[in-house]
Design a protein that fits this description.
By secondary structure, this protein is of the alpha+beta class. 30% of the residues lie in helices and 42% in strands. The chain has helices at 2-15, 19-22, 32-38, 41-44, 48-64; strands at residues 24-31, 66-69, 73-80, 89-100, 103-108, 114-122, 126-133, 136-137, 143-149. Strand 5 (103-108) and strand 6 form a beta hairpin.
Length: 152
């Protein structure tokens, strides 16, 4: 019986994320979405100008995207290409967030935008999220972050 309780506690503590562990600032270090796009026919068959624009956007994302979880607020930086023209711009957005089990729900405050993620891992130094699209986790489109700071 003690062994079952031990494994349950290990699961809850280390595998199953909770709200306190996600609080802090996280920098994006990899994106499955970027890799999927780079391997797509649309990208591979596009002209050099389109690929250059996409590559610039990808690099800006990897250099500047962050998620900063506070008690109930999320501040995050995203990238945008205004009307398909360079330069790529960064946009800081504000949202509210909730975590139910391993499902992270994010509702932006400035626009009517809602998204959900599966929290794959949340550790001392790393966070891994997979977007939920059409009620299914998109494991090819995941995001990996490293912790920059802990905000209490």
């Amino acid at each position: 019986m003690n062994q079952v309780l031990f494994y349950f506690l290990v699961y809850v503590q280390f595998i199953h994320p909770n709200s306190e562990r996600i609080i802090g600032k996280w920098d994006l270090i990899s994106s499955g979405t970027i890799e999927s796009i780079k391997n797509s026919d649309g990208y591979l068959l596009s002209d050099l100008k389109t690929q250059t624009l996409a590559n610039e956007m990808f690099q800006v994302a990897l250099d500047s995207v962050f998620y900063e979880f506070k008690k109930d607020t999320l501040i995050y930086q995203d990238v945008a290409v205004p009307e398909g023209q360079m330069p790529v711009k960064t946009i800081t957005r504000k949202a509210i967030w909730t975590l139910h089990g391993d499902t992270l729900m994010v509702k932006e405050l400035e626009r009517n935008y809602f998204r959900t993620y599966v929290v794959n891992t949340v550790g001392k130094d790393s966070l891994s999220l997979y977007p939920i699209i059409d009620n299914k986790a998109n494991f090819k489109g995941g995001y990996t972050f490293i912790r920059v700071s802990i905000n209490k």
